[in-house]
Amino acid sequence: MPTSVVSSSVEIPPWTWPWWRPTAGQHMTFLWVVLIHATAAVGLVISPLPGWPLLLATAALTWLGGLGTTVCYHRTLAHRALRLHPVVREILIFFAMYNGSGAPLSWTANHRLHHAMADTPADISSPRVGGFWWAHLRWLWQAQQGSPTQYCPDLREASYRRWAALQVPLLALSFFGGLAFGLAGFFWLGAFRLVFALHGQCFVNSVSHLRPGAQVGEDSSQNVYWLAVWHCFQGENWHRNHHARPGSARFGWTARQVDIGWWVIVGLERLGLATEVRRPRVL
Ligand SMILES: [Zn+2]
Ligand SMILES: [Zn+2]
């Protein structure tokens, strides 16, 4: 059959689709991304400036959510670079999900797929094949998601499946919960925070894999200094370090490469709440 008349989404790479066309099973993700952006746009008009208490509460939730993603989802679950005490792990999963990072199994499956297939057409979010917007956002609703059965056979605890079942009510609470503090609370603790957190994570998939001069077949990851600010210096921006030694719990390797996620892990280790912490062998 000539390529021009093949209509199946299986044959046509999803990064060539129109951006508004989700793949099977990802319609809710697409609607969620549209919802938080549209609400944030309205919020810019209605409540562009919050008071200090609201700003601090928004920053605190963002910070805790970021920590949940980098320390728990990324370093602990996806790479097994440390073990967390179950109570700490569950608390961090809550804040990661409240921040819009998705459930632990789906995050881990997608991330392990990314590392396994990095810089190839099979990568779930490679800007090399799909360009910036594919890597930044579109893969969320247009890529075939990583299978937890295939990529996370080691994550067998029942709690991970329970968190997945709680995703919709948790996101509803995350989006609407700020209403308890008025309209400004609704926009700042909800849509503004969620949009900020979403793009912070998405920059890791997009700009952190747009290293100038990277050749085909070469590792495209790079450390992105300005992204440290967006990530509240929690360490995810040292992405080239991470691809070089994905099994290390430490992403920032020098004093100048601030990695608060690592400091938190060291603190938890001293308290006996983190064990089997894997450090980079050579700096
Ligand atoms: Zn990467
Ligand atoms: Zn990783």
Give a written overview of the molecule.
The chain has 283 residues and is an all-alpha fold. The protein has one domain. The protein is 55% helix and 1% strand. A two-stranded antiparallel ribbon has the order 1-2. Helix 2 crosses helix 3. It is globular. The relative contact order is 0.15. The N terminus is likely disordered. The structure holds zinc ion (2 copies). One zinc ion binds next to helix 2 and helix 4.
Secondary-structure element pattern, one letter each:
HHEHHHHHHHHHHHE
Strand elements, count:
2
Strand content: under 5%
Instruction: Report on the biggest sheet.
Output: 2 strands, antiparallel
Q: Give every kind of bound small molecule, once each.
A: zinc ion
Mass-distribution shape: globular
The number of helical elements comes to 13
Structural class: mainly alpha
Secondary structure: helix percent = 55-70%
| Average pLDDT | 94
Strand order of the largest sheet: 1-2
Total domains, how many? 1
Question: If you compute it from the alpha carbons, what radius of gyration comes out, rounded to the nearest whole angstrom?
Answer: 19 Å
Compute the separation of the termini in Å. 54 Å
Uncertain runs are 1-9
